[in-house]
Predict the structure.
Amino acid sequence: MTPTVRLRPGVIPLRQPHCFEVPKYPRTRTSLAYLSAGLFMGWNAPMLPRLQQNSSHIVLTEDEASWLGSVGSLALVPTVVAAAVLVNTVGRRWLLLASAVPFLAAAIWERFATTFGELMTAVVVASLGIGLVIPVSPVYLTDIAEDRMRGLLVTMGSLMSSVGSLLTNAVAPYVSFFTLCEVLMIFPVVFVAAFWWMPESPYFLVAKGRTQEAERALMRLRGKDSEKDVSGEVESIQKVIQEESKDRRSAADGLRELRRSAVARKAFAVVATLTTLNIFCGSPAIGAYATQIFLWSGSSLDSDVSTIVVNSIQTISSLSSSLLVDCTGRRPLLMLSYTGSSIFMIAEGIYFYLKEHGSDELVESLYWLPLTALISFHLLFNIGANALIWVVANELVPDGVRSVTISFIAVWNAVLTSATIKLFQVVSSALGTYVCFWFFAACAATALLFTVFFIPETKGRSLEELNIEMRAQAAADRARHDAKDRS
């Protein structure tokens, strides 16, 4: 007999999360969108140092390279905002399919670029695709996943993004710039061919009154042969949609709900703060400048090989996160992640401090430290913080303000990522690279304390249960607010 979890009255019992259970293949096709995004997100690390060499067909200055590395994050903003509006009108499936167009266009544009401006344009175009994948994929995966595997499926996106970055870093040092661009053209086509047969989100279909299509979609997703086998889940989705329809769903009403509900404001503040600290742990800057960091370190280890090793560790840790998230829970992984990130950023900063102020003999004896510290950082950061930020955001925020919050977080994330990448180069040149690493360490330590005191555990709890609890708290807040207004 399948074990169940005791939930509040009216909530459908769930199977306990099954550790290391692998989702069926059709549900993993969505992650190919993350793979395409990861290919372009991993482009900076191997290509920026190459484009600064005199032998490059487009020679960039250090400042131009830093702009090329950071502008992509800012270019995400308009697409993320548009996706927040279109996800509930056009649908999740069509937006994910549309992401392949800018990816393919960017690869072609890069292939024939001859100036810095053309390269910059290609990066911006690729960012439009990334801006669709980042906010829409978690929503789609959350909608189609069974509760016991929701964390696994959503974190698979981070895994596939890491795989994409690894592929770019593994191929780039050994092929020409033009060949790399031709390789990048292949993957958007593969994604469309694989994902075309996936159904639309059952939640979206029910919300649009297309119940029969939702039943057929669930039959395909759950591997069932009869509508009776999914009728209970369809009814559950209908209840969730009906409850959501009672709440105000427009952006303006969402903002008013934030003002009126202390629960919504608290959830918004928690997610926004965690996102800020997450970015300031330094992962975007370290990823963009990985090869350059190894060149600056003066280590005898090959910089390209070191970058490939680091990306391999990222992929392994993302896989570990996908397998562990529904077994250990969110909080333990986050706490482990931030603790290790802080320790190894301190170690990386010590090496660069000694490189500038210590003896050459001591620095040469520590040749292994830059690679070891970055490997350890990526291993621990990706096993928790990097993979879980969107899981926490989607699960923690009340449904009435979720779309507004997720849109803000995506935009805020893009702005901070761009600023972190650009300022890493500026601060490193002005104050020393070790200052950047010690700042990242301080932010990781702060994120650890924040997780301990403000992040609740959501493992094994259905979205329906979380929404019911949050709506009850929000209703109580509104009642107190109305009573205060009347008095």
